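pinned: reference chain
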Amino acid sequence: MDYKPYRDLPPLAGIASFDSAARPGLSVEQCVNRLKRIHWALRRLHEIFIHRLVSEPVYELKMGFSLHSHYCAEHAAVLRARVAEMREPPLGLDHAPDAALEVFFDEILAAPDTAALLTGIYAHAVPRLLAALKKYVADTNPLVDHPSLRVCRFAAIEVQEMADYGARCIAQLVSAEDQTRLAAWSGLLQKLLAHSGSLDGSAERTEGLPGRNFSASSYQFDPVPKRDERFQDPYNMGVHAEVFLYDPAQPVAAKPLMLFYKRLREIDVPEVIASIIAETKGKSWAYKVDLTRQLWDEARHAMIGEVGFVQAGIDWRDFVRINFTWSLALNSQLQPLERHAVLFFIEQGLMPKTGKRFEWEVGLASGDAFAALAQDFDWADEVLHARIGRDWYVKEMGDAKKATAYGDECWSRVLIDWDKYRLDGLTAHTNWWQPLYSEWCRVHGKTPDAKVLAYETNYSAKRADLRELSGSA
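pinned: its structure tokens
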């Protein structure tokens, strides 16, 4: 039949030709079965990124895991909603759709080191997920199943980004010796997927469920934060950024350096939020989506600090001492709800005029365009985080007054022992501010201000403020 659209306009809203729209494609049942498995893969990858973020020492991987957990949480939420639209209530979405697929992800979660973890995630799971999304787009009818096609097509864009990132990480961090050592395990992962009929279940299944390797023993979440060798002196609490920022006698031109330090120091907030998500049971997926968004925002803040130093001409690794005492204390001394309470309590303190607005005003007044932009968005993010706290933590506590009081009480029990760290030989709490400021002056051809050089930033002189100002959020 010679059927042509009116005046040769794009047919079918431009999404398909008549030939492609007329082909059979997948049935609703077939679509639901595939989408459920893709959803499960995203859900398990989210779990792996969250559980392994805290104890992963490499900073760039912490940041990558933060972003990829956010992607997985968001796309899993959209897929849950789509499945519910297809004559299929979202039953079974919280259970593994296949035993071999479950073992596949268990093995990656239990990977014993960074090389194995990267191999499992980015050489096996993410490429198979990307292939499943692309195959779904190719197999489904583009007209009758356009809502699902759109969901998968958008997800594939960010999963491709994950795959590209992971390939570069593997090239740099997984050696030939690692690949040889992990060859048998990689073979096991391939066998598990073959037994499950590929990640999406569309392939023929092989017989015989392979046995477990790394996951033979029960996996245990490690809440203790780890840092790589660039983070020298991680117990050092010798610089009191907030006191310097709030001192009107100090020149505002030098204050962006302290803002960048505060932002980079926020590397420990994702470590705390990840521990909250990992150890909090019985919450809805919407809870995980919101908390993971906050986690990613805090990771962005850390990278904003990193960029701040780079654009200022400073290699922070040579001068700045980023401590992890906040996340270490919260993750090791408090229960998950108590950590959330402390996070909410600190965030509420950032909302008044003396909080995030003040930091934005400092950025503007300093003349540093990046500092002003960074603090503008940092302020906006924290407003969102306060709302997330109200939606989840405050509702669980009953009311805002009770929630704030509980956060205050939990924070008061946290021991960040400045003296013990020094007496145990973990740090001398050296004051790294003057060398940093002097280097910034040298780079920019400025004469150091005597007030800044003479400024005493050591916590030992200001112990009364330690509890109030040692947080990072």
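why pinned: The CA atoms of residues 189 and 219 lie 17 Å apart. Residues 458-471 have pLDDT under 50 and may be disordered.
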